[in-house]
Automatic annotation (TrEMBL):
<feature type="domain" description="Uracil-DNA glycosylase-like">
    <location>
        <begin position="136"/>
        <end position="286"/>
    </location>
</feature>
<keyword id="KW-0411">Iron-sulfur</keyword>
<comment type="similarity">
    <text>Belongs to the uracil-DNA glycosylase (UDG) superfamily. Type 4 (UDGa) family.</text>
</comment>
<keyword id="KW-0479">Metal-binding</keyword>
<dbReference type="InterPro" id="IPR036895">
    <property type="entry name" value="Uracil-DNA_glycosylase-like_sf"/>
</dbReference>
<feature type="region of interest" description="Disordered">
    <location>
        <begin position="44"/>
        <end position="78"/>
    </location>
</feature>
<keyword id="KW-0378">Hydrolase</keyword>
<dbReference type="InterPro" id="IPR005273">
    <property type="entry name" value="Ura-DNA_glyco_family4"/>
</dbReference>
<dbReference type="InterPro" id="IPR051536">
    <property type="entry name" value="UDG_Type-4/5"/>
</dbReference>
<dbReference type="InterPro" id="IPR005122">
    <property type="entry name" value="Uracil-DNA_glycosylase-like"/>
</dbReference>
<keyword id="KW-0227">DNA damage</keyword>
<keyword id="KW-0408">Iron</keyword>
<feature type="compositionally biased region" description="Low complexity">
    <location>
        <begin position="47"/>
        <end position="78"/>
    </location>
</feature>
<dbReference type="Pfam" id="PF03167">
    <property type="entry name" value="UDG"/>
</dbReference>
<keyword id="KW-0234">DNA repair</keyword>
<keyword id="KW-0004">4Fe-4S</keyword>
<protein>
    <recommendedName>
        <fullName>Type-4 uracil-DNA glycosylase</fullName>
        <ecNumber>3.2.2.27</ecNumber>
    </recommendedName>
</protein>
């Protein structure tokens, strides 16, 4: 357990802002509060749902044959949205051939700048045609520090940069709490395009995007990686556990000829949804900070 005396004034201020953003109004209570018991009591006070009447019950008129007849389909074609029509024919779901094409495109890029240009010109993934932006790595590629989020959200897609909007503001405070900034690390996402409606990427979409993120890691050659979110942790660790089971432990990621230590934590959006988990994220951030100091990537 870290003491406040071990934190610098800047780190302490960032930590206090980090908790205040989650809605924390006090740091210590005189008596422990059992939130689980409160939740169970709240559920017990809820009225039981009323049973729905069954068809044919007394007092209920049976449906006529006319009402049971499904409506006749219309023959008028639905209009095609202008944005889709302007983009031309849409590709099929990525298949094995598209995966091979993605690998070739990634392997032929000799720098992050070349890889960014290649991904922006790549049309083999259907996700690209429903997204506004291609999200690529930003920040300091020479820092040796890499932070990888999951798939872009609506704000990321709108702004064109990873970790945007409210979750991005919280993310900035998380970095500041351990002495980092956006400009001092390399930020990216597992998937470069936002899936429609923020749905999870399909297996085929993950296969086609894998060469792009693996090539980003190989070209940047980070010394330590922080993974944020359930999807990112599962993608790299190859496990189906939740982020609560995958977080907080150092593992290794293989990229090209390198083996890189990586630790997973909760995504800032997860913390906005459930602020109580901030204590878990803070422990992960401290572990990440300690690793960076041991690798001489962060000054004491």
């Amino acid at each position: 357990m870290i003491s406040a005396n071990d934190l610098s004034p800047a780190e302490l201020a960032a930590l206090l802002h980090f908790h205040a953003d989650a809605g924390v109004e006090w740091l210590l209570e005189e008596e422990a509060v059992d939130r689980f018991a409160e939740f169970e009591a709240m559920k017990a006070r809820r009225p039981a749902p009323q049973a729905q009447p069954q068809p044919g019950a007394a007092g209920e008129r049976p449906a006529s044959s006319e009402s049971r007849t499904p409506p006749r389909p219309t023959t008028a074609a639905r209009p095609v949205p202008a944005a889709i029509a302007a983009s031309g024919p849409q590709p099929a779901i990525p298949d094995g051939e598209a995966v091979q094409q993605a690998r070739f495109v990634a392997e032929t890029a000799r720098s992050l700048a070349e890889l960014k240009t290649a991904i922006e010109a790549f049309n083999g993934c259907n996700l690209k045609h429903s997204a506004r932006s291609t999200i690529f790595a930003s920040g300091d590629a020479e820092s040796g520090i890499m932070v990888i989020g999951s798939a872009p959200g609506a704000e990321d897609d709108r702004e064109g940069v990873p970790f945007s909007g409210k979750s991005g503001q919280l993310f900035d405070k998380m970095l500041a709490a351990i002495g980092l900034t956006r400009s001092s690390v390399l930020l990216t996402q597992v998937i470069p395009w936002r899936p429609p409606g923020n749905r999870p990427p399909s297996a085929a979409e993950m296969d086609i995007c894998r060469p792009f993120i693996e090539r980003q890691i190989a070209l940047a050659e980070p010394k330590a990686i922080l993974l944020l979110g359930n999807f990112a942790a599962r993608f790299f660790f190859g496990e189906n556990d939740t982020i609560h089971g995958l977080r907080g432990r150092w593992r290794e990621i293989a990229a090209a000829d390198c083996v890189i230590p990586a630790i997973a934590s909760l995504h800032p959006q997860d913390l906005l949804t459930a602020p109580v988990n901030k204590r878990l994220a803070w422990n992960d951030l401290l572990a990440f900070q300690a690793k960076l100091k041991s690798l001489s990537l962060l000054r004491n």
